[in-house]
Amino acid sequence: MRLYFCLLLLLYSVFNYGFKKNVMPYSLVVSKAILIVDGTISKVSKNEYEFTISQFIKGKSSTKINVAIWKEWLCDPRMKELKSGQRMILFLEKSPYGNFYPINESTGELYVDNNAFLDIFLPKELSNPTVLKKGITMFLDTYKCHEDLNYRFDTNLYFVRNKSIFEVYEMKMTNSSFDYLAGNAEYFKVIEYQQFQFIKRYLTNSKTANS
Fold first, then answer.
1. Can you tell me the distance from the alpha carbon of 48 to that of 65, in angstroms, rounded to the nearest whole number?
2. Helix or strand (DSSP H, E) at 93
3. What are phi and psi of 50, to 5 degrees?
4. How far apart are the C-alpha atoms of 92 and 35, rounded to whole Å?
5. What is the average per-residue pLDDT within 162-176?
6. Rg of the chain's alpha carbons, rounded to an integer?
7. By the 8 A CB rule, do 117 and 109 touch?
């Protein structure tokens, strides 16, 4: 029996490795979300749950929203059963059915217990909900994502930064979550705001001259 159990574990690990989830970087998750909120589940039904918002981090809506329940699979299980009273921080986009949907499934649905995240695989810089919420606000005040927000390595996606690298460095020292998100963004092309405005004016003038 013990041998059989060990073989099952081995097969599970091999199968799981072959179907690893494609995780979206949180700099893109934050940028793509039309709503980032902190709150609790108030009711669970078959295909969605009602969520009562206690704090808006990005975007605005009614304080009670419906969130679609995404389908679990081998490499993307839920941290915990969905039930009333569960606190979560959600990164949401609008679904075609009018309700909201967590971005990249489990990536956009962070379970919170005793002011700590349950997902042990989250980067350590995102381990505290209070720090994360402040870091997200700082990030949104500093970076704006442009072009296609679908995560592809060959995309011409870039971020516009409206603060100097010296200001960003000082901000990184005050909040570990902002440090992580800013570093995430720097993986992609980053243009400073003044440079971005110059490029926009140049393209506008060129278009006008050619028309």
1. 10
2. strand 87-94
3. -85, 135
4. 5
5. 94
6. 20
7. no
